[in-house]
Amino acid sequence: xxxxxxxxxxxxxxxxxxxxxxxxxxxxxxxxxxxxxxxxxxxxxxxxxxxxxxxxxxxxxxxxxxxxxxxxxxxxxxxxxxxxxxxxxxxxxxxxxxxxxxxxxxxxxxxxxxxxxxxxxx
Length: 122
Hints:
Belongs to the UPF0045 family. The protein is built from three helices and four strands.
């Protein structure tokens, strides 16, 4: 087996999650999302926000704990309800250096497109 797991046999996970605070009585949820980002910054896990969620990478249990901690923090900030969509990918067929799971996927697609575009410019 590869480095896709850590010493405790925890799968390395690349997650995309969208946390939606509900029932806040406010049209903007940016303050609540910022609270989740503060939580993620303390985890040491690699993450990147995008327009409709956040990519998060690390050992499965740590990724899930981070999402749990975001829920707890956003509830503590005053959101009475939270709905979260989570998509998680794992793989054990090759080694993935920690923090590079999502970058590797994006880079591979960019390489394919660059090769196509380069071939069309001859």
